[in-house]
Amino acid sequence: MKTDRSDILACLRNSADYVSGQQLCDRLGVSRTAVWKVINQLKEEGYRIESVPSRGYRLVESPADVYSESEIASRLHTKWAGQRLVFYESTGSTNPDAKRLAEEGAPHGTTVAADRQTAGRGRRGRSWESPAGSSVYFTIVVRPSFAPDKASMITLVMALSVAEAIHGMTGLDAGIKWPNDIVVNGKKVVGILTEMSMTPEMNEIQFLVAGVGVNVNQESAEAFPEEIRKTATSLKIESGQRFDRAELLAQILSRFENNYETFEETLTLNALKERYEARLIGKGAAVRVLDPAGEYTGISRGITGTGELIVEKETGETVLVYAGEVSVRGLYGYV
Ligand code: ATP
């Protein structure tokens, strides 16, 4: 939810020059005392705000990696994605939180973010390692009017958005391991879990939630539990730099909003396919498809306009792989 606090922070952040107390009052419709209180509170939290009589306030520096509701909200430049925002220091998992809000009628774009998850989840009942202080975990609610058979494309739309936001902010070559993992230098930095709720008649989507976990500031592989040390990594490990999590989340939401609207125009990935395939790992190379009905290998040829992976078997037969229950691997390892 937008608050005076995040609005004031946003005004200061988006202005290169001083903003007068009166301007803040007028723009936000709050009293002088309210502005003064918020400014003092921000200063106490470590924001360096210069106040010059007759000129006003100027944000000189934000404390490093403050991850809070107002910090995220003040960086958002979206119409609907994250405009209703709920932030938890700690929660079980943001997907069930978002589903609960959606059941209660939360609008399209409602986002739940957390600093830590105690029961982070992956696909097929797997878990997502979710320590405090280093990662981005969030889930966005979407209320589509399209048919349920289109829903799996949202995972790809989100994967593209996250990969592009990571690339834009860090310069890292963020690849997509179809359908839902983001990989940097052969290791996983992001997991995405999309879930759908149907109307009681089971013929329409009530809402979708797309949950994302990004490993951002973990310092070294030792930050991950033994079982995933060889396959997991963070943006910090790969780039040597720490990143502001609130800014990363804001950028992901803004890319997702744009990409989702592009997808909605045709309800296909046609307009996004080229960008998705440019990041697709293993295109043109051999992949192993771990299908519960039977494992097989083939050459990955990219994706269809509806998000299936095109795999050409050795027999020459072309298979369209549907997301859902399937995992894809490189021939000799994770990618
Ligand atoms: P795949 O396609 O690789 O089989 P998946 O898409 O089914 O995986 P997800 O649901 O995305 O898997 O993620 C769960 C898996 O990711 C876990 O089983 C674990 O191996 C790995 N994992 C868990 N936490 C993290 C983390 N923080 N960073 C990277 N990998 C993780």
The gist of it:
This protein is of the alpha+beta class. The protein has nine helices and 14 strands. Helix 2 (21-28) crosses helix 3 (32-44) and helix 6 (153-170) crosses helix 8 (245-266).
Structure description:
This protein is α+β, with helices and mostly antiparallel strands. The protein has 9 helices and 14 strands. The chain has helices at residues 4-13, 21-28, 32-44, 69-73, 94-103, 153-170, 235-239, 245-266, 273-279; strands spanning 48-52, 56-61, 85-88, 111-114, 135-142, 175-177, 181-184, 187-198, 205-215, 286-290, 296-303, 309-313, 318-321, 327-330. The strands form 3 sheets. Strands 3-4-5-9-8-7-6 form a 7-stranded mixed β-sheet, sandwiched between helices. The chain has a 5-stranded antiparallel β-sheet with strand order 13-12-11-10-14, with no helix packed on it. The longest helix has 22 residues, at 245-266. It is globular. The two termini are 39 Å apart. The mean pLDDT is 94. Adenosine-5'-triphosphate (ATP) binds next to strand 8 and strand 9.
For this entry, give a set of tags.
single chain; 335 residues; alpha+beta; 7-stranded mixed β-sheet; 5-stranded antiparallel β-sheet; 9 helices; 29% helix; binds adenosine-5'-triphosphate
